[in-house]
Amino acid sequence: MNGFEKRAELLKAKIRETVLAMLQDCEPKHIRIADIASEAGVSQVTIYNYFGSKEILIREAFKHYVTEHVDDFEVFMSRGPTFQQFVEYVVKADTEAFRRFTPAFIQQMMSGDPDFAAYIDEVTQQRAMPLMHAFIEECKEKGQISDKVSTRMILTYVNMFVAQSQKLLEEAQQSGKGEQFFEEFLHLFFYGVCGIEPEA
């Protein structure tokens, strides 16, 4: 990559980050190319040259966000976490996405943009799921997970909670004690209502 290409990539990254920051407070329909250009300190022509349209820019920015988080997840998994650390990471990462973007925006991207939905399905099936499946099997061998429960059921159980990330975030915010809330949630996830922890 030559100097011109490096500068172009840095400029694209700046534009994407600008859009992601704006999406924390605004719905996509309320964001104009002129606003993005002003915030990023570039011309509208530059944005059109790099991305073609506002819709493509928003899709590419969110795809880049997702890709970075999948990359981070792979790095995390390579460190050999325990199953408890894995669940904590997954739930908090998903909750962070809902903290950064509105549920309406995420739903719009998933159901209103076939290309983005296809991309998410591809990333999930080809990168995330094989990694999680192998990890759970390894945890079973180490005795960290009961071998009485199938890998599919464990993934279903984890995904059930992940699907409620928005509700968890709302409850945590209403409690006024976010960290304590998630500590109690994770304790409940692993040890149930009775709270009986295994002996060390």
From TrEMBL:
Pfam families: TetR_N (PF00440). Residues 32-51 bind DNA. Keywords: DNA-binding. Residues 9-69 form the HTH tetR-type domain. It comes from the Bacteria. SUPFAM superfamilies: Homeodomain-like (SSF46689). This is TetR family transcriptional regulator. It comes from Paenibacillus glycanilyticus.
